[in-house]
């Protein structure tokens, strides 16, 4: 176990955030994950980072705040917080986010509170989020178990066993065996993802047409000069990093106004500390015109109403049904894992997945059809019978996904 | 135990920081103290505070930083940190500091690193520290056990027993019995301290002459119009608060250039994560001209050299040898407790303990003889045979302390 933990910490620091000698590393972590966060800090000092700065979080106090703080708090972002993230990003620090949360931490909270906080944060920290989505600095999100989350994933186990089972599931998902070769396995994996994105880029599809037995029947137009991305990004200072660990996806941005039809979610979505399940969205010329959810509909409605851009799509991502996380048959209640078990979409902000996009302003990207928003929420739509047909600019129809898996 | 914890959290929030309806509370706490910090946050929401903002710390990562970070880090203070403390202070937030640290957390660290960090912090956050020492906002320091600290206090006990013993010692020191009457006991106690300070103010001493069998032979001149303070302060918004819990002291500021002789420490001093023990300081016209320590002399030398003012006294505090903490015979290795078991002095910054001082600038205070520095370090000098003679402006000699206790 100790070997695996250390291998995982090194992987996040050396492949994920890829911390360089003399570079500052910001680690965001729940206090409950302190032993592992400390190990990551140690791994960063091992590669001669300049300094590790901690940004501790706590589910308990987050819930207390959303339940009990003065209502005005949720429309404000203190200047120190803006400076914290923006200044370190401007200084080319690397950011490691250890994400672990009770999926229902905010159950019972007025959903307008996290939605307003998300809007306020997006507005106040627009520079930081723009730099993040343009990969200007290195960042990486990874997860480790906490009790409340593990009990959601494995509800029939004791707390201790659930935590152990979740550790094992995570180690499998991130290719950690304890043999010290995780870094090598990741380089191979990133190579495979890179091949996939190249194939998709060569097709230069005009549309993707989704359908499956859940009832999904959706056409997504892709912008001219869109680019499929996968695996590693390169930061402003020329360093490779992997923003999500695990990552199994190949993704691009849709045309903001080119989405029509209906899509059904294939997995529950954890958002703003609530579970949203069995939901669908209907699109007309890109805009979400209807949402339905059997569970958490109020949270979903608040999420797509955060701002104008929240009701348009910002990401199209392809993940084969036959992928390691999907094959584990574990529902993680954590988008970092669940989105890598399934084709997914996101409403809100688009990554600048267009030729020259990293150098474009938000306004230029918008003119090229890429969505602008203060939010970005992934949701899972892939199934074992998902069909995706790519339509080229000259009208050819290419099967991209057949029975849930890549066909190209 | 649960009753005592809750009574303690309420005491710190309602008497210590005295959090008001609609006021923001900043809690600084080690992550190891999270359960108690959460309880304090709950107590603050119980009195309808606006929001609780956490400033988490971690001994482990602090040590990692001082051992392994780039050397330049210790001369810098990031802007976000300055904004964090200064902005909340300007907004009249209350500050609760839960202080708990391994007394030897920085053993083996180059002492110039914490000394430089202290100087840089003092410079960058001058406004915040000025507001704090002028009681412009409400603040309170309290402590709870952590393992590493408890093992220092009770080295012959198991870790678990040491923590229990330290809890009991702290509860005794802060008058917590679990009967729910701690707030009442504290009001009585603060009344008694107030009587003492009034008596001392009536004498309006020109000098205090210290002597005891350790070899202390020290004359301290007090500034004209000096004021003895004790117990509760009143913040800019007119709210009573108690900056230290426990507090047994009556204190004022010495004349910066009016200290002559030698003083011997009566208890070890924990400073910058190191223990300094069996030490003496020699003064000539206020300035520390010699320091000796059997243990930690390098740390002490670095501390009095932080800036010009660090080598002058900034505080004179009287605590009877026969006080509850002293009578417990426990050496706490934590200045918050040890200074309230013993007469003490501090080198560095003076509190503005002079008539009209809270409205004076640092330069004006300096002209009135009060010391200016970016540091303020208390050290203990009281013994069972301490004699302190007060000399009035008309030359009368009044025994203030006889055999370690108040004689006035």
Describe the structure in brief.
Chain A has helices at 2-16, 34-46, 59-68, 79-90, 112-124, 126-133, 147-153, 159-173, 182-203, 297-304, 324-327, 335-338, 362-367, and strands at 24-30, 51-57, 94-98, 139-142, 207-211, 217-221, 229-230, 232-234, 240-242, 250-252, 259-264, 269-271, 274-284, 287-295, 313-318, 344-348, 376-380, 387-391, 397-402, 405-406.
Give an overview of the whole structure.
Two copies of one chain form a homodimer. In chain A, strands 5, 6, 11, 12, 13, 14, 18, 19 and 20 form a nine-stranded antiparallel β-sheet that branches. The first copy, chain A, starts with a helix and ends with a strand. Chain A has 13 helices and 20 strands. Helix content of chain A is about 35%, strand content about 25%. The model of chain A has no long low-confidence stretch (mean pLDDT about 95). The longest helix of chain A has 22 residues, at about 180-205. Chain A is α+β, with helices and mostly antiparallel strands and about 400 residues long. In chain A, a hairpin with a 5-residue loop joins β8 and β9. The interface between A and B is medium-sized, with 30 and 30 residues.
Helix/strand structural class of chain A: alpha+beta
How far apart are the first and last residues' alpha carbons of chain A, in Å? 39 Å
**Stretches of chain A where pLDDT falls below 50 for ≥5 residues?**
none
Main sheet record of chain A: 9 strands, antiparallel
Percent in helix of chain A: 25-40%
Main interface: chain pair and counts: A-B, 30 and 30 residues
Number of helices of chain A: 13
The quaternary structure here is homodimer
**Rounded radius of gyration of chain A (Å):** 20 Å
- For the secondary structure, the number of strands of chain A is 20
What fraction of the residues of chain A are assigned to beta strands by DSSP?
A: 25-35%
> How would you sum up the global shape of chain A?
globular
């Amino acid at each position: 176990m100790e070997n695996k933990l250390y291998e995982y910490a090194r992987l996040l620091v050396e492949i994920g955030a890829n911390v360089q000698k003399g570079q500052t590393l910001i680690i965001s972590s729940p206090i409950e994950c302190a032993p592992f966060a400390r190990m990551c800090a140690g791994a960063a000092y091992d590669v001669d980072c300049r300094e590790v700065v901690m940004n501790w979080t706590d589910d308990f106090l987050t819930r207390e705040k959303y339940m009990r703080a003065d209502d005005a708090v949720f429309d404000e972002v203190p200047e120190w917080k803006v400076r914290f993230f923006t200044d370190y990003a401007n200084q080319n620090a690397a950011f490691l986010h250890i994400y672990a949360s009770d999926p229902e931490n905010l159950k019972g909270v007025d959903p307008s509170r996290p939605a307003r906080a998300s809007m306020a944060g997006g507005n106040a920290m627009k520079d930081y989020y723009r730099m993040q989505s343009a990969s200007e600095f290195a960042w990486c999100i990874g997860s480790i178990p906490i009790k409340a989350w593990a009990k959601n994933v494995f509800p029939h186990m004791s707390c201790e066993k659930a935590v152990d089972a979740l550790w094992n599931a995570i180690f499998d998902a991130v290719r950690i065996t304890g043999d010290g070769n995780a870094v090598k396995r990741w380089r191979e994996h990133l190579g495979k993802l890179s091949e996939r994105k190249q194939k998709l880029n060569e097709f230069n599809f005009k549309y993707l047409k989704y359908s499956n037995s859940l009832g999904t029947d959706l056409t997504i137009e892709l912008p001219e000069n869109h680019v499929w991305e996968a695996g590693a990004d390169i930061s402003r200072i020329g360093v490779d990093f992997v923003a999500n660990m695990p990552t199994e996806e190949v993704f691009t941005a849709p045309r903001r106004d080119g989405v029509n039809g209906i899509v059904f979610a294939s997995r529950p979505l954890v958002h703003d500390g609530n579970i949203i399940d069995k939901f669908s969205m209907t699109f007309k010329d890109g805009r979400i015109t209807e949402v339905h959810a059997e569970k958490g509909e109020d949270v979903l409605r608040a999420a797509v109403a955060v701002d104008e851009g929240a009701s348009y799509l910002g990401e199209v991502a392809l993940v084969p049904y036959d992928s390691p996380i999907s094959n584990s048959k574990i529902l993680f209640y954590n988008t970092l894992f669940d989105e890598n078990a399934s084709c997914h979409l996101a409403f809100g902000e688009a990554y600048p997945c267009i030729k020259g996009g990293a150098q474009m302003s938000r306004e230029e990207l918008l003119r090229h059809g890429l969505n602008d928003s203060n939010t970005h929420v992934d949701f899972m739509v892939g199934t074992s019978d998902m069909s995706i047909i790519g339509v080229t600019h000259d009208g050819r129809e290419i099967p991209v996904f057949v029975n849930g898996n890549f066909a190209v």
